[in-house]
Structure formats: C-alpha cells, structure tokens
Amino acid sequence: MGKKGLDTKEHIKKIAYQLFVDKGFKEVTMKDICDNAGLSRGGLYRYYESTEQIFSEIISSFLTVQNTELQEQIDNNISAIDILNQLLEKYRLEMLDARNSLSLAICEYFSKKRIEENDNLLSQQYQMSFSSWDRLIQYGILRGDFRQVDSRTIFDLILFSYQGVRMYSLLMNISEDIPQRIIKQIQSLLIPVQKLEEYK
Amino acid sequence: MGKKGLDTKEHIKKIAYQLFVDKGFKEVTMKDICDNAGLSRGGLYRYYESTEQIFSEIISSFLTVQNTELQEQIDNNISAIDILNQLLEKYRLEMLDARNSLSLAICEYFSKKRIEENDNLLSQQYQMSFSSWDRLIQYGILRGDFRQVDSRTIFDLILFSYQGVRMYSLLMNISEDIPQRIIKQIQSLLIPVQKLEEYK
C-alpha cells in the first residue's frame, strides 16, 4: 500500500475513533464513517469491510505505538524513572478525560461475542502490553532505578486500576485526586524512597 | 410493609439480578421479570415501577449488606487481618466468576444517563463503600494489625482494580493468578511483613 493509502487509513481510523467514543460500538455504522470521513462507500470499503475490523485495528495501533515509543526511550538510555513518570502522566490524563474514553465501545464490542472468540485479540493485547511494561521494569531494576519487584503484579495493578477508573469515569465524575493517589502508590511501589525524594 | 411484602421484594430482586447478569440492563423488561418471578403484572408493579428502580435497589443492597457485616465483625473484636482476608477472598471469587458479573448491566445502566444524574447514586456508593473500608483500615491500624497507610489510596486501588478485572472478565478469560497477584499486593501494602508470615 502506497503512502496515500496509508494516509487514508489513518484518516478513517481517526474519524471512526471519535465516533466510537461518542456513540459506543453498537451504534456506529459504516455509513456514519463514510459520511464523517468524507469518503464514498466504495472509498471506505476499499480499506475496511466492517466496523469490527476498524475497531480492532484502532485497539491494536494504541499498543504498537506505546511499544515502539518505549523501546526507543530505552535504546536512548533514558532514566527508567523518567520513562515511568511520563507513561503514568499519560495514563493520569486519560483517566480524567472521560469524554475520550473508549470503555463503553470496548464493553459493547467484546460482549457481543463469546469469550473464546475475543480471547485471541484481548489476551494477545494483555500479553503485548505486559511485555512492554516488563521490559521497562526490568530495565529500571537493572539500572538501579527501581526496586526488585514482581513486574506482573505491578502490571496487573496498573492495567486493571486504570481500566476500572476509565470505566467509572463514564459513570460518575472522577475527581483529580483519584488517579493521583493511584499513580503515587504505583510510583512508590516501584521507586525506592530516596530516589522518590530526588524527583520531588 | 409486612414480612410477606419484604419476602416478595427479595424474591423479585433475586430473579431480576440473574436476568441483569445474563442480558445486561437494556434488554431486561418488566415482563421478563414478571414471567421469571411467577408474578402477575399487578403483583410486580405493586412493589416496583421500573427496571431502573429494581436495578438501583439491587446495587444499594450489596453495599448495605457489606457495611452491616463489617460493623458486626468489628464490634465482635475480630482481628482486622481476618476480616480483611475474608473480604479479599470474597472479592477474589467474584473476580473469577465472570458469569455472575453485573458489569455489562452497570455499564449500560449508567451510560444511558448523563453523568450528573448518576452522580447521586454512584458517588454516594463510592463514599459509602469508602467509609466502610476506612472503618476497617483505621480499626486495623489501631489494633496494630495494619501499617500506617492512607486508607483512601488503598481503597481506590482495591475498588478500581476489582472493577477493572470484573469488566475484563466479561471480555477475556481471567486466569486465577491475576486476582491472586492483586490481592497479595494489597495484603502486603496493609499487613506488616512479620504479621504476614504468621498468617501463612
């Protein structure tokens, strides 16, 4: 696929992303996407056959981007604490940004199918996301930036509390201090006290 | 309301609970509840006017039961560690029991409305649930069972990681070790090392 094709796909995903955020998964149609992206039916179907295909590609792109960025920072020998704080700051902002949450769409998309069918996509994502966090945590331990922790435990805590807050943020007002408390706790699990002091 | 009326309400809530678990919130009708509870239309409407009313009562009962049980155990001077472990064990089993999760129904129920309307019910529940956990944590600190922790931080971590796992459990297979890791981490945040050893 040439550059023009790739650009069009990016454009479609960006438009579709906002529609999924606004309306959930069930209520978005291929026609909505055509209309909002300024494409003809043929123009859209050249790239995607269904909203499901677009949705699953959007979800995958998130992780790919995060993995690539993380690896670059590690390759550039940036402090693990800086990388961590930057990631957690991103998560914090996302937790507060209820209007941009895909949680309802994710709920609807995956609950339409049997768990076994999802398992490929979601379990894969869980694994990919873990291996990216594991890389960061091992790197931090090796550099002496982090405590000797079990990276899976920390990862589960980060992932699920993040998802829990994002789900709740659709349902009630999440005050600033909730993500802040969670993030502070995760930092203190990873970063030894004296290093935490240095970063204040 | 006499005992018979209260029993009928309990029966209705039990039947409705299973329907909400199986079908989410949107697809359950008052007729479904009549049919499954073996009640006439009039019999049901004497107690509840809508599925919304039944749903919000189900959610409230959970918390009331948890609060009452907790207070009883504290009044009986039971070790805070025992109370904690019992609660966490209950949470662990619920996290693994995807088929009994109300998460999809909760998502659908609350996302139907504007956040401001929900705020009464959900924020109230968040506060109630916090005050019950806070009571336990302060009691544990006072008895010397727990470390000097910030109870709100621990509460947020427990609540949101629990909710995150419950949501995910609708979508993918949650292996036994995920809730186990989360619970072990929470225990070790609360219980000092030497006390943890005693309980192994």
UniProtKB/TrEMBL annotation, chains A, B:
Pfam families xref list: TetR_C_17, TetR_N
Domain called HTH tetR-type: residue spans: 6-66
Keyword match DNA-binding: yes
This protein's UniProt keywords: DNA-binding, Transcription, Transcription regulation
Entry-linked InterPro entries: Homeodomain-like_sf (IPR009057), HTH_TetR (IPR001647), Tet_transcr_reg_TetR-rel_C_sf (IPR036271), YfiR_C (IPR041612)
Feature: DNA-binding region: 29-48
Keyword Transcription: yes
GO molecular function: DNA binding
Name of protein: Transcriptional regulator, TetR family
Taxonomy of the source species: Bacteria, Bacillati, Bacillota, Clostridia, Lachnospirales
